Amino acid sequence: MKLSELKLTNPYLSLPQECHDPVKPTPLKGPFLIHVNEPMAEELGIDREELHTERFVEFVNGSWHPEGSEPFAMCYAGHQFGHYVPQLGDGRAVNIGTLKGWHLQLKGAGVTKYSRSGDGRAVLRSSLREYLMSEAMHGLHIETTRALAIIGSSHSVYRQEWEKGAIVLRLSPSWVRFGTFEYFAHKKRLDELEQLIEYAIAESYPHLLGKSDRYLRFFEEVVERTAKLIAKWQAVGFNHGVMNTDNMSIAGLTIDYGPYAFLDVYDHNNICNHTDAYGRYSFGNQPDVAEWNLRALLRALSPLIETGAMEEVLSGYRRLYRSAYLEEMRQKLGLDGVEEGDMDLVKHLLGVLQALQVDYTLFFRTLSRYEGEHKPLLLLGLYHTPMREWLERYDERLKYNSCSTQERHTKMLKTNPKYVLKNYMLQEAIDAAQRGEYTLVDDLFQIAHDPFAEHPEFERWAGPTPEEHRNTKLSCSS
Ligand code: AMP
Ligand code: MG
User: In the predicted model, is pLDDT for residue 104 greater than 90?
Assistant: First the structure.
């Protein structure tokens, strides 16, 4: 399809006026295409030749709209670092319409009613981080929002210094957040709250439509999706960094990429967000914080659903999380079936990885070719004995496997990525992009898109993180 043939709809505008505000994007000066996600364009049905035209840049810059587009910003609230903020919303993301179930947003396209004191802009570095990481999560089979393209510009944006503005055209099957419900609940706008839950059910849980107990079932499924999502984050070693309730997707997606990090050496207490002094959003705290956030959602839904019934659902969160996590870890370890000591085996391993400062991703990739030879794994850590002891225990567990060693290797190589986008790799691409060189963006995109492939040309990124770049913290400023 040509861009001129696109027809967008705006289902969110069927909700009451309180939920959104019409706004026109404010285009950037001197826009140019940095990267386009061709597989995503194909999924949307946009012709390849259209992606490298002036019109496409105008589309991402918000200076040209497809037919049917009625741009607006969404309103929400949220608990930020545990404190309720009654008015947030899309302060710099403009929704431009829906195509094939994907809601399109221009992030960085200027001020909206919800910008507060912000400038409505996003800088190149944070835009590249969101663009690449959403693709990386998709490549890792983790539920996430996506991105179609990123443009740079000559537009100056001030953070701690002058930087260049960028826009990511991002898309999602849902942009509704826990904080969207909190907004209406705290304002006691119960009609709007009810319309929002009906909307969210139709959008993300359509199998519940028409069921008399659909509200409670909705909460149950949000709890379940959240538990499973966090289990995937913990298994792959992803630290989100800002799990405020406005950054929690009602559809169970990874949403709003800020100062996130993939673990370098394994550190249960890793903090990636510079402003997170007490580690509220540390890696190891993510499962608990997700539960805290679900409780905030429970409170917001309490005018619509019996609280006792929701409490009972929420009391099952930990069990759901633990079993989802254990299953993820069994896959990573290549364990068949279910044995009683499996969780202990995992905990033992994490203690060893932490003590020996082993690169988390590299460990599992190396283990994916394990044939009983300890040496390649012993070499990953600071010293040998704890790892040897764990491997002996692992050897015992493998005896209960019914699949062959070869089959185990094949499965593990599809479960344990060779590459994750560590912060030092992203920083390298950002530094080059600041100089106007974008080939590293494409290199990282290729890795992100298929992190399980060998990509011999990118081998230098498959090793442990260079020591000076390990477990660094990033600021929220973006
Ligand atoms: P975030 O930390 O990106 O999840 O953003 C938290 C809130 O601040 C959201 O309501 C954003 O829309 C808003 N926000 C962040 N940066 C800006 C900005 N530069 N201009 C306007 N609003 C912003
Ligand atoms: Mg956010």
Answer: yes
Output the six-digit token pair for 301. 């839904």
> Model confidence over 432-478: pLDDT tens digits?
999 999 999 999 999 999 999 999 999 999 999 998 898 788 876 65
Domain count, the chain: 2
CA of 210 to the centre of ligand 1 (A): 36
- Does residue 377 lie in a domain region? yes
Question: What are 177's two structure tokens?
Answer: 């957040």
Report the pLDDT averaged over residues 386-390. Answer: 98
Cite the active site residues: 246
Beta bridge partners of 32: 152
- Degrees, nearest 5: CA angle 95-434-259: 55
Each residue's pLDDT tens digit, 399-426? 999 999 999 999 999 999 999 999 999 9
User: Is the residue at 189 inside a domain?
Assistant: no
Task: Look up tokens 């035209």; give the residue.
Answer: 53
Is position 354 within any domain? Answer: yes
- Show which of 413, 431, 449 is a domain's final residue: 413
Distance, CA 319 to ligand 2 centroid (Å)?
A: 28
Ligand 1: residue of 83, 92, 182, 254 to mutate (most ligand atoms within 8 A of CB) is: 92
The last residue of one of the domains, among 377, 398, 413, is 413
Stretch 371-381: mean pLDDT: 96
Q: Which ligand is nearest to the CA of 117?
A: 1
Question: Vertex 38, ends 36 and 42: CA angle to 5°?
Answer: 135
Ligand 1, atom 6, lies closest to the CA of 88
427-454 as b/e: b if 16+ CB within 10 A: bbbbeebeeeebebbebbbbbbbebbee
Q: Is 88 in the pocket of ligand 1 (CB under 6 A)?
A: yes
Domain encompassing residue 361: 335-413
CA triple 377-379-380, angle to 5 deg: 70
Please tell me if the CB atom of residue 179 comes closer than 6 angstroms to any atom of ligand 1.
Answer: no
- Answer yes or no: is 63 within a domain: yes
| Average model confidence (pLDDT) across the chain | 97
Mutating to test ligand 1, I would choose from 115, 121, 124 the residue with most ligand atoms within 8 A of its C-beta, which is 115
pLDDT in tens, 148-203: 999 999 999 999 899 999 999 999 999 999 999 999 999 999 999 999 999 999 99
